[in-house]
Amino acid sequence: MAEPLIRMAHISKFYGRVRALEDVDLTVGESEIVGLLGDNGAGKSTLIKILSGAIPPTSGDIFIRGRKVEIGSTTDAIAQGIETIYQDSALVTQLSIARNLFLGREPIRGPRLLNRMDHAAMDAVARDLLKRVGISKDIPPGTPIGSLSGGERQAVAIARAMHFDSDLIILDEPTNNLGVAETQGVLRFVRNARDSGHSCIFIAHNIHHVFQVVDRIVVMRRGRVVADDIDPRHTNVEEVERIITGMAEDGSAGVVRAQ
Ligand SMILES: Nc1ncnc2c1ncn2[C@@H]1O[C@H](COP(=O)(O)OP(=O)(O)OP(=O)(O)O)[C@@H](O)[C@H]1O
User: Fold this and answer.
1) Which atom of ligand 1 is nearest to the CA of 15?
2) Which PANTHER family match (predicted)?
3) Structural domain boundaries, residue 204
């Protein structure tokens, strides 16, 4: 069987005496969108922070396509093809869409010493990316980020991850505080990212949003994975809610792994 894109194995994390994660396994396949669900304090953010290099695990291993990797920092994670997009993505509101797509990785024009940014190249890539990510409106790449809606900003962050060819895009609550149309836009951007070969981990408290976009749902509770193979096409929101809250301990959905 082919190795999954990402495999986190036996991950545990203690904050002092607080056990945030206990023996967690998580896999993400190629071109797969995995929804990570769980109540407040279940351990989702901690797991994602470990995968994105923000914090080290207390124990456990991470494999990318079967190769064991050490992710010691967020820069490390990006170099390994893992990009994380937070709710208020790290975008600079005063700068243009094009500049934000390249922040810190701008193409240079002419002699290196002069360090002149190649604005034409950045604009051309930005135009193409906005189209690929699925922004239907014709937004010029010179538009400052500050004048975009929340959903469009998420799109720019997703486009950035696509351009730098991140294998895995982690989206932490990307639809928080967004209106209905905007949310639909972000869900579409995520599907487009998957369709062009990127994998995603999608974290959201709104289960309805998760159901609309993911291929598989993983549920965490009190630092453990309690279900890891829920197919949203074969269950419903109420059933998943019962698993999240622990009301389905008997495994009635047929998806709760024996612990
Ligand atoms: N820096 C920290 N120091 C001590 N305990 C922490 C720290 N960060 C998280 N925890 C604890 O670890 C556990 C898991 O928290 P985590 O933030 O990962 O959960 P979560 O599922 O992301 O919750 P939420 O949906 O509320 O963001 C909780 O008990 C939390 O209180």
Assistant:
1) 4
2) CARBOHYDRATE TRANSPORT ATP-BINDING PROTEIN MG119-RELATED, SUGAR ABC TRANSPORTER ATP-BINDING PROTEIN
3) 6-89+166-245
Question: How many structural domains are present in the chain?
Answer: 1
Residue found under tokens 């950035």: 160
Residue 225 sits in a domain whose CATH number is 3.40.50.300
pLDDT in tens, 223-256: 999 999 999 999 999 999 999 999 876 444 444 4
Is 198 part of any domain? yes
Minimal-distance CA residue to ligand 1 atom 25:
40
Does residue 81 lie within any of the structural domains? yes
**Residue 21 within any structural domain of the chain:** yes
- pTM of the predicted structure, to 2 decimals: 0.85
How far is ligand 1, taken at its centre, from the CA of residue 77, in Å? 21
Query: How many angstroms separate the Cα of 5 from the Cα of each of 2, 32, 73, 129, 211?
Result: 9, 9, 19, 24, 22
**pLDDT tier for residue 41 given thresholds of 50, 70 and 90:** very high
Residue 134 within any structural domain of the chain: no
- Ligand 1: atom nearest CA of 16 is 4
Q: Which of 14, 37, 44, 172 to mutate to test the pocket of ligand 1 (most atoms within 8 A of CB)?
A: 44
